[in-house]
Amino acid sequence: RLLGSGILRVEFRDFFLADILVSLAYSLSTLRLFGCIKETGCFDVLTPLLGSLPATFRLLQTSKRCFDTLQVNHFINIGKYGTTILAIWMLYLYRNVQTPATKASWAIVQFIASTYAFGWDVKMDWALCELHSENYLLRDELGFESHWVYYFAIISNFILRMSWTLLLFFEINHDISKIIVFLIASGEMLRRCQWCIFRVENEHVNNCVQFRAIKEVPLPFPMEE
Q1: Owning domain of residue 72
Q2: What is the pTM of this model?
Q3: Would the pLDDT of 145 be above 80?
């Protein structure tokens, strides 16, 4: 169904899987090394192509939903994946043309993409940060009793989304940078695991509120004891 992105009707399972793959961009981008004897200069352009493939799937899925529903939020979501793809290609450019201009360009685009994605995670995917909620900066209906897990998720999500800034302090092709990239990619997988929990939690809460998933059906009249 991922290969049919942009054509097939988009369901929860489709974009949920594609979003998980977005966090595996680093792993996918290194697949080119299977056909290489040495790392440098071997199918180098495949790195951004493979790395941006999951985001491209999501871009096509979101475009399909935007076309089908004409809802503004899907149009906004297109911009999120568009900036994600652009950031991947800007990093590729910076790796190959290491100048202050390419570094600044990549940093600006990456900052926009990360901020964009963080805001979407919290506000749209998790439906948190409601200003007038009875649960401060969360939402009225929660799946977990402890509020601190939501606050922890918001803060940790922001930190991991912005972990790429560590690369600004080192040369991009230095050995220490490769270690940092690996750690950032590992942190991204942990962040995605956390995202999955709260994304499913929010979906379940919405289903319960709309009576699509409930433990028991409330009767339209009071029960007599």
Answers
A1: 12-209
A2: 0.86
A3: yes
